[in-house]
Design a protein that fits this description.
Structural class: mainly beta
Strand content: over 45%
Distance between the termini: 28 Å
Helix content: under 10%
Strand order of the largest sheet: 3-9-6-5-4-11
Largest sheet: 6 strands, antiparallel
Number of domains: 1
CATH architecture: Sandwich
Shape: globular
CATH topology: Immunoglobulin-like
Order of helices and strands: EEEEEEEEHEEEE
Number of strands: 12
Low-confidence stretches: none
CATH class: Mainly Beta
Radius of gyration: 15 Å
Mean pLDDT: 91
Length: about 150
Amino acid sequence: MTRYSDEQVDIVEAGKVESNAPITFASHIASFDEKILLVSAQANVVKNEMQLTLSWQVMNPTQGEVFRHVLDCEGNVLGLGDGPALGGVYPVWLWRANDRITDVRFIPLEKSSACYRIEIGLYNPENGERLKAFAVQGTRLENDVWGFEKK
């Protein structure tokens, strides 16, 4: 993907789609509406941005949009990265069964922190309702959000 600024032009990774990927239900970290699995999540601070790499496995197609929130560990919002995968060009409604999507998102941060909390989920853009999120054990996640801390 190409990113333009007044000073320069950068080529940045946006991710990829693998069709007919083997289903890895046993190795996911969260599920959404029992249709989309979050397989992995990695976060790295690069300059004044959070580079967030998410790997999704599609069990069954669904509607929705991805939200990616970066907070400090006290709960203050530092950056938001809502919207379609792959730099905004691959919305959830296009995802097909057995697709594996690697989504790389660069989220500008308002300020740096010693501790970051990353929150991930899916929501319906028409009404703002979040898709039901479940932990690996099958328990419903609070606020339908899967999250982790990066220190």
